[in-house]
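FORM 7B: Structural annotation worksheet

SECTION A. Query
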Amino acid sequence: MSPLTHYSAQMHTRLTMAFAALITLGLSATAISVTPSTSAAPNLPRLSPDTLIERIAFGSCLDEEKTPPPWDEIRVRQPDVFMMLGDNVYADTEAGVYVGPNLEVMRRSYAALGAQTGFQALRSEVPTLAVWDDHDYGVNDGGAENPIKNQAKDIFAQFFDVPADDPMRSREGTYRAGVYGPEGQRVQIIQLDTRWFRSSLKETDELNTPGKQRFIPDNDPAKTLLGDAQWQWLAEQLRTPAELRFIVSSIQVLSDGHGWERWGNFPHELSRLFDLIRQTNAHGVIFLSGDRHRAAAYRQIKDTPYPFYELTSSSLNAGVASRQPEIDPHRLGGKLYPGENFGEITIDWTRGVVHLDILSLPGTHRVRGVTLAIAELQP
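SECTION B. Predicted structure
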């Protein structure tokens, strides 16, 4: 079809999904002509502090204009919580074209996600948590400079049903945390905001060169990834008693084999993170991340107080095969997995074991992963 016909067809599909979201939420269909709804559906389940967590599902990079992922394949596994790790919608893109920060596009993107019946079924049964990355933040590779971040935060918090009295609502950024389960089986989930405060990235001097594709490390000590307030908050969280701690970062923490966004672009901030975990004597840390449109498991033992593990799951419906070799000393289990996928964490409290798995979509076949002892996650 012609480009104009293709654009019109995509817009028709998107508007139809947005109308469906409004109807699902019991709102007037005429509302979409002004402000499409981004409200969460009523009576969504929330994670209780008393919940014993034994299974966590998570994923990232969901393009609401593409075919939805098979949500039911995640739902039927009955996770205790489902976490969305960023790029939960592509709110800076419309009909495949980058438009930058645009609140109307953002609202339509969330409405389209909310209209997906499989997503509706999943979140009606499973408590859902979320962090954002650049595309749902509203600016590709964006940081502190985003001109619409306050409004984007409101849309994000409303859609993901963040309680009105949650401390996140009254401070800058979207970071938040919680501890779940009884003593001896406590799981802490720390959700970082890697966008709101982040300083500008240092552009590469060798564009598209393996390992230096777009950005290179910046050792400027004045630059930050989390910002002072979030760093202080993180120190407090790491002092909170817990047996397992999942630090959720939209961008990769341990990966060291590419020139895209990662913690390694600010080496001093990565060192600060490792030092903080050591100084607070925070046992049980595991990192979870998204962003990459491919999946892998990682392990690092150098410069860490104990072995650090990371599971990266991406993408739910927009996988991308790597066009260049990515040599990473921390990656486990061979090459990056390029197919659609989600992450699943299974905790066997009786045996003291954690399974970190990447499962394919469709099919839920284990394609990457690692099993470790909880006792390993301490000095």
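SECTION C. Observations
The two ends are 61 Å apart (CA to CA). Residues 3-24 form the longest helix (22 residues).

SECTION D. Sign-off
Analyst initials: ____
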